[in-house]
């Protein structure tokens, strides 16, 4: 049995310790917002937070996260009202939408550490997130706006 916390809920799971976290989240826990993209941790579609840090869940064995806190896109906010989610919508960032959960999770992890990121900070934090639709300028704009919104709320 592996114990972990997903979106604030304690779970005890009887799974193969080498099963990737992504498959536990999607297939066992039935949270399907995190997506499978490349299976090698390169595209970012599977990004979740592990103790507040953005990680690639497709290459992370469940045994490596025992006792830790995992946040998926479903747990980022109850009503989709996280500053990043709000500005994503306001800027029409998503086109096909496949990568967006991972993009939002990477962006929110950045803002948890840096509430006034520069373009270079954003480029570095988001470098591993691929968007086939090419909405990178809107992503950057949305992150800057989310940072501002988050600062205003505090």
Q: What is the CATH architecture annotation of the largest domain?
A: Roll
| Beta-strand percentage range | 5-15%
Helix content: 25-40%
Shape type: globular
Q: What Rg, in angstroms, do the CA atoms define?
A: 15 Å
Q: What are the low-pLDDT stretches, counting only 5+ consecutive residues below 50?
A: none
Characterize the structure shown:
The protein is of the alpha+beta class and 154 residues long. The chain has two domains: 2-76, Roll (Ubiquitin-like (UB roll)), CATH 3.10.20; 83-153, Orthogonal Bundle (DNA polymerase, domain 1). It is 39% helix and 14% strand. The chain has a five-stranded mixed sheet, sandwiched between helices. A hairpin with a 2-residue loop joins strand 1 and strand 2. The termini are far apart.
Quick rundown:
The protein is built from six helices and five strands. The longest helix is centred in the last third of the chain and has 18 residues, at 136-153. The chain is of the alpha+beta class.
Q: How would you describe this structure in keywords?
A:
single chain; 154 residues; alpha+beta; Ubiquitin-like (UB roll); DNA polymerase, domain 1; 2 domains; five-stranded mixed β-sheet; 6 helices; 5 strands; 39% helix; 14% strand; globular
